[in-house]
Amino acid sequence: MKIHAADVVVTSPGRNFVTLRITTEDGLTGLGDATLNGRELAVASYLGDHIVPLLTGRDADAIEDTWQYLYRGGYWRRGPVTMAAIAAVDVALWDIKAQRAGMPLYQLLGGACRTGALAYGHASGRDIPELLDSVRAHLEAGYRAIRVQSGVPGLDSVYGVAASANGAGERYDYEPARRTARPTEEQWDTAAYLRHIPTVFEAVRAEFGPGLPLLHDGHHRMTPLQAARLGKSLEPYDLFWLEDVTPAEDQAALRLVRQHTTTPLAIGEVFNSVHDYTTLLGERLIDYVRSSVTHAGGVTGMRRVLDLAAVYGVRSGMHGPTDISPVGMAAALHLDLAVHNFGIQEYMRHSPHTLEVFRTSYRFTDGLLHPGEEPGLGVTLDDEAAARFPYAPAYLPVNRLADGTVHDW
Ligand code: KDG
Ligand code: MG
Predict the structure, then answer these.
(1) What is the pTM (predicted TM-score) of this model?
(2) Which of 49, 112, 151, 192 has the greatest count of CB atoms below 10 A from its CB?
């Protein structure tokens, strides 16, 4: 069946989302997420100006061929903008194929390997008592695995820490790409962070015991030596993983970290291709791959990452903050169910406004996510609701050290 039309929907129900919708000649529609937080319009233009004109008249069933046509045919390969655009086409075509088959997508990907995907939520606190309340609230909300981020004495705002008490544990946007004409600026001090974080995990383990899977995100801010020290100092607290300790583009940096610590390592949310992982996987430097369907070339691109990871016994931990739209989240959940080397799925809940625009069939029960049984992805887009939330420019923050030097955020 041929592709009849494709259009790009940009909407901002609390934060910006870019969605590609493909319609076939027999009237099926598929959705793909192309959201790149803080750089949304670049992907919208890439799709609208360069990809949509190529889609009309193509065979909607030829998913791999279309992926290769856009990847190899574009000449300029990889990169977050290109790969988010290819991802959106890929996911929309998988959505259509599964709808045509009358099956939820996970069935076409091989069927379920498990009853649901273990999800982790984000607990945070400006200080330790606030953090402990947040962990408690997440446990009450049903989470069985929890990411722990804490304020650092002397720093006003820190990545991953909600600006106000995160009591309900239901959802919060700790890092909205803020709707301002320029990025806000934050201050960073790695030495203060390294002194404080072990005391945070000591307090969380003392309160909640040894069994609760705990995660932490270093957000690319350390040198390999600093990261190795952090990994060692957290070993007594038995983390599920320590994420993004060093800037991700330097794959070799993790050699030193790996030599010095047995804390499991996760990386890859800013990666967009299997080629970003060849050193990390080939040398067995990591334990979890963190890419998303949205940013790594769709179900097709992400499956390549997961299959290579499986060769080395490495498991999935797909990126799932609220800047992955419900369309991207649904696609991740179908893969989570279908691949053997699933590890964990990140899950921050979307806002009620977002869920007015995107109606989803996925559900969260007893700490596990399931994509639901609707044919396709199980997500629909309400155009009227989308139009009520127009795009607004937004940026992620920029970090500076005390002397003004720009640092990784
Ligand atoms: O857009 C940036 C966010 O997706 C990122 O900061 C979230 O690090 C993140 C995480 O682990 O969810
Ligand atoms: Mg992260």
Answers:
(1) 0.97
(2) 151
